[in-house]
Amino acid sequence: VVSYREEKNVDKDSQTPTYFAGKFLIDNWRWAGVPFYVRAGKRLAKKQTEIIITFKTPPLKLFGSACRKILSNKLIFSIQPEEKIALSINMKYPGVENYPHPVNMDFNYSNLELNKLSAYERLIIDCIRGDLTLFARQDEIEEMWEIIDPIINYFNNSKSNIQKYKAGSWGPVNGVWLENE
Predict the structure, then answer these.
(1) What residues make up the domain containing 134?
(2) Are 147 and 17 within 8 A, CB to CB?
(3) Confidence (pTM)
């Protein structure tokens, strides 16, 4: 896989950003204290779009000291390359062992015998039917730019260099912090 700077007609010294990782907090009563993590980039290890809800570990440990290794429960909405919903929870297996193990429950649209339309086919059909659910409204777009413009301006005025990363990787080393939060 060639990197962005190796593409035809791209300056080898280009400072065009191709990766972003960030943590956002929404300042309202509903989402107070809930972090939203965003990561996007060109030529990453995998092309995928997901929304992952990571639940806080409960303060009460039902399994006592065995819960030291417990992972957070997660609800995962996969948008691409596959449309699916997965729930990863901790469960105690039957038997004498008193340690919770992560188990996954998946619902995958590709397992259903449906008339499988491509994303573009569904979008065009929705447009013809007047269903605007998948289309952004003007106020949504304006709000997105209210969030994105200051970030772009910060990096345009910053003296820091763009961090390079290898094509086919998960991005710059400093972007991996997102995985560990």
Answers:
(1) 117-161
(2) no
(3) 0.70
